[in-house]
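Project standup — Tuesday

K.O.: blocked on the structure for the chain from last sprint. Re-posting the sequence here as requested.
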Amino acid sequence: MATSTTTQLPGTVQTAAPNLRGFDTDTVINAQQAAAFITTGYSFCIRYLSLSNGQNTNDLSFNEATTILNAGLALSAVQHVLNPGWVPSTSLGTTYGTNAASNAASIGLPQGMNLWCDLEGIATGTSAQQVIDYCTAWYNAVAAAGYVPGIYVGANCILTGTQLYENLPFQHYWESLSNVPEIPNRGYQMIQTLGSPVSGVSIDNDTTQNDNEGGAVIWLKV
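H.V.: unblocked you, prediction finished:
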């Protein structure tokens, strides 16, 4: 697992412009691949934070983050989610939110940028309140550490669009490529679609936009 570092990553926290094309991937990106994405017209990369306390080998590290940023890609981070059929709870939200923030800090990701909660694959029969409690606890733990929580709305998230907007504290929403609810009033700041491999890296595509309340993704960029 990665150890914490006091070395500063390059770049500054910035608000994303609309209509930029990026990608998310579970694959570690090297310098050659990062350059290939730039050449292909990509502007940003989203990589993973571990659920555990400490980054796993295949998740984002300080060295990889530096490589991505120095290539000219903006960087954002989303935490993994448990296997489909998991059951959310307040305590789980606190644990995973705390780990997300701690892992982000260990990489060198600065406060003030978005960290994303992956909400999908929840067990059938789970109550909306359980999901709300989990998400709120995750949000509170991440916000307390100085990051700006965002939420990825995926398949089997249990909540309706109204619940996602009215019952959660989030102000940053990312729409998955699955069939998911619209967010009333606000809408989404990032839209995911199917992507084709680039330089051997399997990806999903993502496109930024300003939401209906003027909000946008906040990321790290040189």
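K.O.: great, moving the ticket to review. The mean pLDDT is 96. The CA atoms of residues 27 and 201 lie 7 Å apart.
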